[in-house]
């Protein structure tokens, strides 16, 4: 089998960063009142700025597929004709612009200079970006592809806007109930960000400068054991099952904000760290790897609240990670879902700090139904 390397990384962030104070100017006030939970959530998640692919009046500035295509295009800025040599496009998102065609096909549609190539569209949430990456990695490693692009992108800002919840709030008012949005829906409004990232994966490293050899990528799901924790296009029933938007009447979809993105916060706190990082320990033991060998640890965090939880778990389970090795850009980029790990690695890759032989560990937890992806890279 061939080796596989990340040889280039690019990202695209729409418009200017949005500060905490500006958020409701973009997302709006529900029932004309400031959110009760905003200050609490922001204090815990530690995010100071994020990006939205929309203007303050809600007008879209970019589609999801367009942002992904712009990130891909930036991989080939120095030689624009090189995009014609790409033989695979693997595109992930949790927030496609439409149900059909596939997200990957829509991204390919923006890449007018690319050839007629294989396109795949892994679905999911945060782990989807790693699934897209793994498909590209395996295709190159098998020798079936020579120049593969993996990308991940998110555009969730439109479903975070207040007008998405107005019918639900008006229904609550009619019923003389508290018209404030339920915490499980309001929680993620202050967490999520838009943007895209892309990797170029090749069978040979760069002839000058650094590359990242992909040592392995492993993942697991606990959906057979755990109920859904984050969901969209469905409502959670008392027995923990999900009722699809397809099974609601059209007026109920609006009245219950079924297409909002929701988080079971209690379940998140109980499960997200201990399930995934117990699996990481198993992987490291099986591969005979010590955390001492890792030079950079890049965990995808939805909130800095979990940073200490991960550190405590790793310390208590014999795999301590020195804080000098940690890197995250959550504070400045927000949670960009499946694209977050791409943006983090892009910053490290072009930092000028990497030395050949150093190892980078990527960790991506996904709370939707508790899935995890881990990856080891070696600087070469």
Care to give the gist of this entry?
With 380 residues, this protein is of the alpha+beta class.
Secondary-structure blueprint:
Elements: E1 5-12, E2 18-19, H1 23-27, H2 38-45, E3 49-50, H3 64-74, E4 88-92, H4 103-110, E5 118-120, H5 128-141, E6 147-154, H6 157-160, H7 166-174, H8 183-186, E7 195-202, E8 212-221, E9 230-232, E10 234-236, E11 242-244, H9 250-255, E12 261-263, H10 265-287, E13 296-299, H11 305-316, H12 330-333, H13 340-349, E14 359-366, E15 371-379
Parallel strand pairs: 4-5, 4-6, 13-14
Antiparallel strand pairs: 1-7, 1-8, 2-3, 6-7, 8-15, 9-12, 10-11, 14-15
GO molecular function, one term: acyltransferase activity
InterPro entries: ACP_syn_III_C (IPR013747), Thiolase-like (IPR016039)
Domain Beta-ketoacyl-[acyl-carrier-protein] synthase III C-terminal: 286-363
